Amino acid sequence: MKTEIVKELGQADILLPRLVAEGLAANDRIKLRLSALQAAVQHARDPRGDVPDLTMESRAAGLAPAALVTLIGGAQLAGDDKVVAPGLAPHLKGIESDILAMISAVTVGDAASGQQFDRRLASIRGAGHLDATPEIEIARIGRLTGVDHEGPDSLHRLVMDLHKALNRLAASHSEQVIAGAHVFGVQESDRAPIESFMRGLGETRPLKFNHPGLDATAIRAGDRLVIQNDIGTTDAHVIVIVVTASTVTITYTDVHLARAKFFVSLFDGRALKWSGLDKHAAAGLEDEGTFYLVTGSYEYGSPDDRDDLLAAIGASLVFLIDWNKARKLLRSWVAKTDAVRILEWAARQRIGHRGFLELGGNELLGAAVRSAAPTRIGFGERLDQVLGREAAISFLKACLQISTEALLEGQSSRLARDRIGADLVRHLDRVDSGLLAMVLRQIGLARDVAALVQQSVASNEPDPAAAKRLAERAARIEQKADRIAIEARAEITRLNARLVIGDLVDRIEQAIDELEQAAFVASLIQVPMKTEIRSALQALAAIGVTATEHAAVGLAAAAEVQEGRRADSEDALAAVARLMDAEHHADTREREITAIVFSGGLDLAAALGALELARAIERATDCLASFGHLLRRYTMSDLSA
């Protein structure tokens, strides 16, 4: 038990069993120390006599045998009435220290008796009987060790009375075990709240795995039931719960302010009134003796409400062990606030973080990155920069869950690493899917421009105003597509995505540029065309629209190949084949139009317009065919993966 911090909290009641045990041990030491003083006098008077062997008694009392042998064997007379001996002053200080330990225990269990014993000790001190001097009067040793019931008080009599008081306390606070908690002096009515706290503790205790901690102690102190838990190994990390007839009070201390806030957050939604989170200092503690203290109070309406809260408190404690270590680790992969958010989720889902730490933590994540994405995630690069914030949080949640499940189910650490690596691949694939969605938006705009071109060649009646509006609309669409392309490239760079996705963006952007050029040329043709050439242009424009549709279908199918759907891979490859066919048909139509123009009989403006329009549409289908080749490579790489 973390004695110093519990004393600092003013909850010494819970320490009584330990203090009684220490007091009884101090009684044994005092008796041996007094015997050693008597033996020292005897040896000083008769140096040739044997030095008594107190080795067994020393070890039983927890004292060093050599120190007592030296004290007794080196004792000499100083005149007729004094004795000098090596180590005498520390020996006398030890007697006083042990007396104080006995009085301290009695005071916690019976304050009035403790005050009485304090006064008796003060009287003995006042007479100089415990002065730590290098020599001591033989008469003073007699007063220390003697028991004269008729005469003045003596130290030995004080020790005997303290021993009786400690025995009474020990008898009234004999140890029991209730649901795994060590309890002392409890009443039958205390059983339900203790069992409730231990039930919650037991539900989540397995999640600490090999880490020490979570031992619970309970004691009845007057009208209060006091439950204490050490949590982990940090000196100032402790929780004390006081249960009265109407209230549950939680006193929680922590050296980490962030963890104290986290603990409070676990009880959001409960009618607890919190105060504190103040910084305190206490001597004898690690971390320079500073800690944070917070107190929560809950006035319950029924025993069921009380026990429900106690179970929740018990269940929450395992999530505090190594919490700051886990937070620092996660903070190197995502933002600080998101690291806490992940730990809160893990606590509420009763997954925890200890399994993740047990399997290696950073090393576990590093192995997953090296195995699944060595070229996608650089050394020291945060996951939220590669996957995006929500995807990174989702992946790290999965890491905690997989680690916990693996340890609880007895799976190998290798299997856990493989599962985490596979989950990282899935999240990276989802990143690709998000980028492909941006490319799909580009294709949708490409189709819009292709449809405008088709619309422009559908009529043989020149309309300058309508043609101008058509060209302006195509230009606006092309500008919108440019913005999407810029955004997509920025995301590809930020997320370190596959280069082929950037190539897909480039090809669609080029196709849109060519289609917008075709719309511009179509807006300039303001003379009637022969039916033959107009029909050929209409057929070519229709191929441009169809090609954009094949590209959209192929990309949508390819995005699903990452999920392992064979039908989608077949659909993607079939769409690529149709794109190739569309490009061939466009070549044929473009050459047909070129032949018609060179056959003569056309107005010069109409001839030039037809040639430029056909070439722009054909170049757009070339870009879409190139897009198809890239899409095939993307699909095949996913299938091979």
List the helices and strands and how they pair.
Blueprint: H1 3-8, H2 16-45, H3 55-61, H4 65-73, E1 76-77, E2 82-84, H5 88-109, H6 111-126, E3 135-137, H7 138-145, H8 155-172, E4 175-178, E5 181-184, H9 191-204, E6 216-221, E7 224-229, E8 238-243, E9 247-254, H10 257-265, E10 273-281, E11 290-299, H11 303-316, H12 323-331, H13 336-348, H14 354-358, H15 362-372, H16 383-386, H17 389-408, H18 413-456, H19 464-494, H20 499-524, H21 531-561, H22 566-598, H23 604-640
Parallel strand pairs: 5-6
Antiparallel strand pairs: 1-2, 2-3, 4-5, 6-7, 7-8, 8-9, 9-11, 10-11
Helix pairs in contact: 2-4, 2-5, 2-7, 2-8, 5-6, 5-8, 6-8, 9-11, 12-13, 13-17, 15-18, 17-18, 18-19, 18-20, 18-21, 19-20, 20-23, 21-22, 21-23, 22-23
Strand pairing plus helix content: what structural class?
alpha+beta
- Assigned CATH class of the largest domain: Mainly Alpha
Q: Residue-averaged pLDDT, rounded?
A: 86
First CA to last CA: what distance? 55 Å
Proportion in β-strands: 5-15%
What strand order characterises the main sheet? 4-5-6-7-8-9-11-10
**Known CATH architecture of the largest domain:** Up-down Bundle
CATH homologous superfamily assignment of the largest domain: Phosphate transport system protein phou homolog 2, domain 2
Number of helices: 23
- Main sheet characteristics: 8 strands, mixed
The poorly predicted ranges are none
Task: Could you tell me the CATH topology label of the largest domain.
Answer: Methane Monooxygenase Hydroxylase, Chain G, domain 1
Coarse shape? rod-shaped
According to DSSP, the number of beta strands is: 11
